Amino acid sequence: MAKIAIIGEGAKVTRFGLTGAIVLPAEEPEAVRAAWRSLGTDVAIVVLTSRAARSLDGETSSWPLTVVMPP
After folding, report:
1. Rounded Cα gap, residues 4 and 21, in angstroms
2. pLDDT at 1
3. How far apart are CA 58 and CA 3, in angstroms?
4. What CATH number is attached to the domain comprising 38?
5. Number of structural domains, the chain?
6. What is the pLDDT of residues 10-26, one digit of tens each?
7. Staple 5 to which of 16, 22, 56, 66, CB 3.0 to 4.6 Å?
């Protein structure tokens, strides 16, 4: 079964754990990149905070599907 992962600042992503998503709190750019690299092949959708998305600028691929939360 495909999974959803949420990456970004802890205050913005922690609550998504209640939905069953994989929550990867990451405050600093290197932590965001490490979280991205840690994603398993079973992750189909990644939701990023806007700050996390800026940290990954140009490093994401077409899979998994990636969306950015509004600021």
Report:
1. 5
2. 83
3. 23
4. 3.40.50.10580
5. 1
6. 999 999 888 889 999 99
7. 22
Domain residue limits at 41: 3-68
Instruction: Give the other-Cβ count within 10 Å of 23's Cβ.
Output: 20
Separation of CA 51 from chain center = 11
pLDDT at 71 > cutoff 90: no
> Could you tell me which of 15, 13, 71 has the C-alpha nearest to residue 46?
13
* 63 pLDDT higher than 90: no
Asked if the model's pLDDT at residue 62 lies above 80, the reply is: no
Across 47-68, average pLDDT: 90
Secondary structure (H, E, C), the chain: CCEEEEEECHHHHHHHHHHCCEEEECCCHHHHHHHHHCCCCCEEEEEECHHHHHHCCCCCCCCCEEEECCC
